[in-house]
Every structure is written in structure tokens, then in C-alpha cells.
């Protein structure tokens, strides 16, 4: 007889079990975003023409929004 341990537990027990993994995972993601943000700010400060960087970012966001609105999907393997 196979016992389904996760099916026999309550919601609170699952939250207690998963809480450390969620906290550590969120911390890793947040640390990565902070590191990348600081690197971007340093690059922007050193750029000779920061308006070009802002314009390029705006163009990239515009292209992504346009392709999403048009319904373009990347091929999946």
C-alpha cells in the first residue's frame, strides 16, 4: 500500500515545509536583480551618450510590446 504523504498533509504543513525554499529563492532573485541594476547604473554613468542608451531601451521595449500585441510567438522545440 502506497501512502500519499503530500495528499495527507494540511495546507499549513505544506507552507511550513516550503517556506525556507521560497525565502531563499526570493532572496537569490532579489540579489541578482540588485547586482544587475547596479551594473546597469554604473554602465549608464560611464556611457558617453546616455540618451542613446535610453533610446535603445525604449526602442527595445517598444518592439517587445509591438510583437506581443501582434501575437508573434517564438518557435518551441
Per-chain topology:
Elements: H1 11-46, H2 50-70
In short:
The protein is mainly alpha-helical and 77 residues long. The protein has helices at residues 11-46, 50-70.
Protein architecture, described:
The structure is a single chain. With 77 residues, this protein is mainly α. The protein has one domain (11-70). Helices cover 74% and strands 0% of the residues. It is built from 2 helices and no strands. It has helices at residues 11-46, 50-70.
User: What oligomeric arrangement do these chains adopt?
Assistant: single chain
Shape: flat
Strand content: under 5%
Gyration radius from CA atoms, angstroms: 22 Å
Give the overall average pLDDT.
87
Parts with pLDDT < 50 across at least 5 consecutive residues? none
Give the beta-strand count.
0
Distinct helical segment count: 2
Q: How many strands, which pairing sense, and closed or not: the largest β-sheet?
A: none
By secondary-structure content and strand pairing, the structural class works out as mainly alpha
User: What is the helix fraction of residues, given as a range?
Assistant: over 70%
Q: Domains counted in the coordinates: how many?
A: 1
Report how far apart the termini are.
Answer: 39 Å
N-to-C SSE string, H for helix and E for strand: HH
Please supply descriptive tags for the structure shown above.
77 residues; 74% helix; mainly alpha
